[in-house]
Specification:
It is globular and about 65 Å long. It has 20 helices and 13 strands. It has helices at about 5-15, 30-45, 55-60, 70-80, 100-110, 125-130, 150-155, 160-170, 180-190, 195-205, 210-230, 230-250, 260, 265-280, 315-320, 325-330, 330-350, 400-410, 440-450, 455-460; strands spanning about 20-25, 45-50, 90-95, 115-120, 140-145, 285-290, 300-310, 360, 375-385, 385-390, 415-420, 425, 430-435. The strands form 3 sheets. Strands 8-9-10-11-13-12 form a 6-stranded mixed beta sheet, with helices on both faces. It has a 5-stranded parallel beta sheet with strand order 2-3-4-1-5, sandwiched between helices. Strands 6-7 form a two-stranded antiparallel sheet. By secondary structure, the protein is an alpha/beta fold. The model has no long low-confidence stretch (mean pLDDT about 90). The two termini are about 35 Å apart. Helix 10 (about 195-205) packs antiparallel against helix 11 (about 210-230), helix 11 (about 210-230) crosses helix 12 (about 230-250) and helix 11 (about 210-230) crosses helix 15 (about 315-320).
Length: about 475
Amino acid sequence: MRRKLLQQLLEWKNSERRLPLLLEGARQVGKTYLLETLFGKEYFQNVIRVNFEKADSELLALFEGNIEPQRIIEYLSLKFNTVIVPSDTLLIFDEIQELPRALTSLKYFAEDAPEYHIAATGSLLGIALHSGVSFPVGKVTRLRLYPMDLEEFYWAFDKQNQTNEAHEAIKKLRKPLIESDFRDLFQQFLAVGGMPAAVKEWTESKDLNHVEMILKNILADYKDDFSKHTSNAESRKIGNVWRSIPQQFAKENHKFAFKTVESTARGRDYAFAIDWLIDAGLIYKINLTAHGDKLPLSFYSDKSDFKIYALDVGLLRQLASLPASIVVGDDNIWSNFGGAFAENFVLQQLRSLGFDETYYWANNADNSNQPKGKSELDFIISDENVIFPIEVKSGEQVKGQSLRVFRNKYKPELSLRFSLKGLEYNEGLLNIPLFYSFLVNDLLTQKDNLPNSSFAFIKNCIP
């Protein structure tokens, strides 16, 4: 199964200024498979992987002493009975957060042995760093892997030619030729999600029961991490926040409410739990921003007013105990939760496309003398000093007040709406079908290729 990050790994491999690589991401998003199978076995003669979660006492003792690179190389060469040639061998330090001295060793590889290809993975690195683990600042290249996005899901079903055509279509200012195939697979993505093990099972068996078991096992593994890495009291609070995500979505206003977690919960009691889930990569926290026309958006954000989303729609559905059939079928339950799933899906795609800074907006949030209005915009992003408001709709009925209020107030040059309607542009509003969400960067990039176009190209290519 192809992953987009492979291209960046190849660039890292061929870089003359290569530093040790640190690949971060939540558990089971495919970090080891990407490094060892898709990258290592394809582009290196040999691959040596050291898993620090399962390392024996002898290997652990190696890093307790002198962590000079040549000493480590000699030991690993003997232990794995492999001649380690710098240009032909990929060394993988798996789950490096489990051994802080191994993390420190990356600094010395960068300084004293840059010819070696060292790649490390970290699932709970953020948690380890908050616990006081030293980080080799400026001595590593950091990349983050998310669950498979929608385009990678399409690739898993051999639709790469179709996605390539869609990208080329936007570059040539015309509509993509394929729609129905994408629409069908999009619905499947909402049920299965982007966790590689679940996607692989779905492509091979098309058995939702098998997919459900995989998702349940992933959730069970996450629960084990809660208790393995925290105290009993902290683990309970982390679990309470994690399980509350579907209930947070069930409210008309999705703003995170501590009382939804526990009737007596207070912010200071659960701050650690939320931070832990963020550091583990299991949730995305979206803060309120008071202004829709001022950059950087982070300067005007309110960290006490926020929403949280799950890292993956498939896991969210499983966490909510909703059967997969409601996503691919026509069920009243889906109509109740469709908006929440669509929002989570769009945020998941935005993160995978590089939009790490995402906020939401509420009317009157910039005026402390007035109560916040009922108009709330799902997301706001910025790209090259341009602010783009985003509205998300789960179906083809797209009438909504919030985006209209925002546009009347701030007059943005271009507004984005994701829905199941077709690709169309009308008076500054671009509707992007949810199943074409992988084309966002293509659409936004075109504005730089046509000076003073004011996004007229969109109207020209999308009649």
